[in-house]
Specification:
This is Lipid A biosynthesis acyltransferase. This protein is an alpha/beta fold. The protein is about 50% helix and about 15% strand. Helix 1 packs antiparallel against helix 2 (about 30-45) and helix 2 crosses helix 4.
Length: about 300
């Protein structure tokens, strides 16, 4: 049986990440990016399960058998995004070229006074969205994150950006405590971002068609949005090389409705729409896919 994503051992460590960050801040981002090549080479040689997952995804997204160069580009894109993420967390004022593709209805929902739920994915970098929000003082972004399952990243944000760490809503707290924290954030007209592309073993899942196979997505975000009665927006921040990011937004609905008589079908429809949107942008920017584990189920 394939190892679940939340059970995989983290292959990086905070010491190495902080060393690269120190080089980036002392000598500049271009110098630090040169160090990414030997790091990518190391993962190409030793990352058996990650390379297998990369091959499985790229075969679907590229509609051909991936070559060695495709895997190298895949891992290099991931390393580049991680470097930028650390620089943003450390408060570095690097100049990022962000192309914001935000339809009018999305801008209206974000500033409706009700708050909204922003569904993200491990496709590109959600961190650049927060960087943009910092520059737009009228837009607040709070991140819903399971701090227990993201141990290394949790440690990094606590060390690099304590203010951001305090603003994270810890998803490991369950039940009324979590709902209360979310309601308080939404009452402040915050945009609450949460990942919606990975399901835990103990979590309710919805089966969807994704890039020619069957995958499992969490039902929780849609149930949560229905309970909170807020708009739901999809967002994908795609890395395009250099310092360029392409941020795509799409409004799913001003209100998520899960009627009791057709609850399962409604959940299926919402999750499938998210999967279709994710597949669209994954094909546009295939090297931005950062789910390095067995993503597809073997049977429907």
């Amino acid at each position: 049986m394939a190892e679940a994503w939340d059970q995989q051992q983290e292959r990086s460590n905070t010491v190495m990440l902080r060393l690269i960050l120190w080089i980036a801040r002392s000598l500049g981002r271009p110098v630090a990016r040169l160090l990414l090549f030997p790091i990518v080479g190391y993962f190409l040689l030793t990352g058996g399960s990650a390379k297998k997952a990369s091959r499985d995804f790229l075969r679907r997204a590229l509609n051909r058998e991936p070559r060695w160069l495709d895997h190298a580009k895949h891992f290099h894109t991931f390393a580049s995004v991680m470097l930028d993420r650390m620089l943003i967390l450390s408060g570095n004022k690097m100049k990022l070229d962000m192309q914001m593709n935000q339809p009018p209805e999305v801008a209206t929902a974000m500033r409706s006074g009700r708050g909204c739920l922003l569904l993200l994915a491990h496709l590109g970098s959600f961190e650049v969205l927060r960087a943009r929000a910092v520059s737009e003082t009228d837009l607040r972004i709070r991140i819903l994150m399971d701090m227990a399952s993201n141990r290394m990243f949790s440690t990094l944000i606590q060390q690099l950006d304590p203010v951001f760490a305090k603003s994270v809503i810890d998803a490991s707290q369950r039940g009324p405590t979590l709902v209360l924290a979310l309601k308080e954030a939404l009452a402040e007209d915050a945009v609450v971002g949460t990942m919606a592309d990975r399901v835990r073993d103990d979590e309710r899942a919805v089966s969807v068609e994704f890039l020619g196979g069957t995958a499992q997505l969490p039902a929780g975000p849609w149930i949560l949005a229905s309970a909170l009665n807020v708009p739901v927006i999809l967002a994908f921040s795609l890395y395009r090389g250099g310092n360029h990011y392409d941020v795509q937004f799409e409004l799913v609905s001003e209100k998520i409705e899960l009627p009791r008589s057709s609850r399962e079908q409604a959940l299926q429809n919402y999750a499938q729409r998210y999967a279709d949107c994710m597949a669209h942008y994954a094909k546009q920017a295939p090297y931005n896919w950062f789910n390095f584990y067995d993503y597809w189920t073997k049977t429907p």
